[in-house]
Task: inverse folding
């Protein structure tokens, strides 16, 4: 029996980085996969024990140069040596990463050993780490075509962003007590919730419910007022796992504009009101939202300009408008349903041709 191909996946921090990587890992069940992450981040909860997790300390670069930068550079150099040792001793044949801080030592260590590196960037505006280190990769797969123009001289390929397998099976049942045939609004704010959006939404919920809608509000676990509104047609949860079931059932979503959330909205054809997180690095969520608004798949508002009357009335008018169906159609048109399969095939091609 031949020994399985060994792949190191470097993905860390948020659902937006981890879910696409997990979706690709699922497609490589014949591979021996190990995971590179950071201590105390979401990967310690989300990565299944089938993928041994190696945690190393790395941080992001601050805007200004100073003593902090010196510490981070020292940490990065140490991390590169740690990953290099791991790759060498473990006889890994390639690295797949979904970007962020963890990808810097992974890319540099793999490059120094001449291993194939497949990088996935899900955002329309690639992150700083991607822009800096992607030139050392074999290929950069992009979640939105718009990203290519920010990566001049880099070999990019448009694959979309992989979604969890729950999004690829039709008719995922929803275990929440929502009556059939009522309009359902789903509110979520990325994998950590969005306190500012939560507050605005709670102010609008009574009038949406009066109009016959039901609301499922995923608040995240950091909102001190999460339980403050009690209403029959209003369900609140800190986090919900069955996003496929929920988004398939939803008539409208109100969401941040993280790449994984947007991809799921496209795959499920869910019309959305997007409120990009205003403090996201380099305002990248605004670039993501732009892909959806220009395709006619969503409406977007800056958080600073969105008031209670505006959000309240927008939702009410959308719920009774044929625009909702049109947006759903446009969302489906931009979905790449087989992104995980495409990425897995790319990984196989680059690793196995060596
Ligand atoms: C604040 C910030 O900078 N966020 C970034 C972060 O992703 P972040 O994780 O914040 O946001 P994303 O929208 O990309 O992903 C959220 C994920 O969490 C899931 N979810 C959410 C709530 C819930 O109750 N259950 C659940 O499963 C969503 O379905 C989605 O899969 O990395 C992404 C990829 O680089 C970026 O595009 C985001 O802009």
Result:
């Amino acid at each position: 029996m031949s020994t399985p191909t060994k792949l190191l996946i470097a993905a860390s921090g948020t659902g937006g980085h981890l879910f696409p990587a997990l979706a690709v890992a699922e497609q490589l069940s014949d591979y021996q996969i190990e995971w590179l992450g950071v201590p105390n981040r979401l990967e310690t909860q989300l990565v299944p024990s089938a993928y041994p997790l190696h945690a190393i300390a790395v941080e992001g670069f601050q805007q200004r140069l100073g003593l902090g930068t010196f510490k981070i550079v020292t940490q990065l150099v140490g991390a590169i040596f740690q990953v290099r040792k791991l790759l060498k001793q473990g006889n890994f044949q390639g690295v797949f990463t979904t970007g962020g801080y963890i990808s810097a030592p992974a890319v540099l260590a793999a490059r120094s050993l001449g291993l194939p590196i497949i990088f996935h960037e899900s955002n329309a505006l690639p992150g700083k780490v991607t822009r800096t280190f992607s030139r050392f990769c074999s290929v950069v797969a992009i979640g939105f075509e718009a990203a290519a123009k920010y990566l001049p001289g880099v070999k990019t390929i448009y694959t979309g962003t992989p979604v969890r397998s729950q999004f690829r099976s039709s008719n995922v049942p929803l275990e929440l007590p929502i009556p059939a045939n009522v309009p359902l609004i789903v509110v979520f704010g990325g994998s950590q919730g969005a306190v500012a959006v939560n507050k605005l939404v709670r102010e609008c919920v009574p009038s949406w419910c009066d109009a016959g809608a039901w609301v499922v509000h995923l608040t995240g676990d950091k909102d001190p007022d999460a339980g403050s509104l009690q209403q029959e047609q209003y369900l609140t949860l800190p986090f919900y796992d069955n996003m496929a079931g929920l988004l398939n059932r939803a008539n409208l979503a109100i969401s941040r504009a993280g790449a994984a959330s947007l991809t799921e909205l496209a795959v499920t054809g869910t019309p959305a009101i997007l409120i990009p997180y205003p403090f996201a690095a380099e305002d990248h969520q605004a670039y993501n939202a732009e892909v959806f608004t220009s395709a006619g798949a969503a409406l977007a508002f800056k958080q600073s300009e969105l008031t209670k009357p505006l959000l309240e009335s927008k939702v009410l008018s959308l719920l009774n408008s044929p625009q909702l169906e049109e947006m759903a159609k446009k969302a489906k048109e931009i979905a790449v349903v087989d992104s995980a399969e495409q990425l897995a095939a790319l990984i196989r091609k680059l690793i196995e041709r060596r």
Q: What stands out?
A: The CA atoms of residues 318 and 324 lie 6 Å apart. The chain has a mean pLDDT of 94.
